[in-house]
Amino acid sequence: MDVYLPIANLSVNGLIIVGLGLLTGLLSGMFGVGGGFLTTPLMIFYGIPPTVAAASAASQVTGASVSGAFAHSRRGGVDYQMGGVLVAGGIIGTGIGALLFNLLERLGQIDTVINILYVVLLGSIGGLMARESIQTLRAERTGIPLPARKRRHHPLVANLPMRWRFYRSGLYISPLAPLLLGVATGILTMLMGIGGGFVLVPAMLYILGMSANVVVGTSLFQILFVTMATTMMHALTTKAVDIVLATLLLIGSVTGAQIGAQFAQKASPVKLRLLLAVIVLMVALRMALGLGYRPDEIYTVAPL
Fold first, then answer.
1. Could you state, in order of their start, the residue ranges of all structural domains in the chain?
2. Which residues are listed as membrane-spanning (predicted)?
3. What is the pLDDT of residues 230-243, one digit of tens each?
């Protein structure tokens, strides 16, 4: 079933795009992370231009985050005060990211930068996840438990001025810390089309020191609004959002998320996390190899 993508300016098999969405939705439901960090690389592997893949993936992540954010909100798992600061920083970050995106596009380096960012982020995060999972599995086999981690914010966060009380998160820290974290997430969302959850959640836990019971819900709350802003920013500036591509991905991801959530209830969380780490490292390795290949066309020509 061939479908023409007007912004990408090519025809694709619509069932394959739905299948990619189904796969990322399946992973999202299984592992509790947004599929944006895998959606963009998989589309690039299939032949979608990186700029269109990143811009369209952001809009797909928006749709996939709505149900999750509402579910966590109903059970009181969202710190709206913290989320508001993160959203403010994220919107600022999307503006900065749009400027960087346009600059790199004019220089003809945006495709290379997107690939390098994915290799660095996926490689580092996948490595950390794999190490933690292996340590946990070894502890289970030997019967020697790992030392419990203390919930505390990073020393740099403690030194920032103008502290606020974030009652739901159980924190008394400067709002500058989550604001800057939101800015960084907004820039990454604009450049890479990710929701930012796989970066934001660990940062909220280990840098801000937030309570674990509100981390996922607050992250989804921030992702929802920041990806909306990113989609609008791309539509107004880069004009790289392909609504046909995003719709096909969303159809698959919504279905896949339901299947993945059911499977996750029956599997070991540690083994699932190790499996996700392996998948992330494989994608990072494939993108790193792609950077070393000589392309068929040295230059990418974008329509004016």
1. 7-292
2. 12-38, 83-104, 110-130, 171-199, 205-228, 240-260, 272-289
3. 777 777 776 777 77
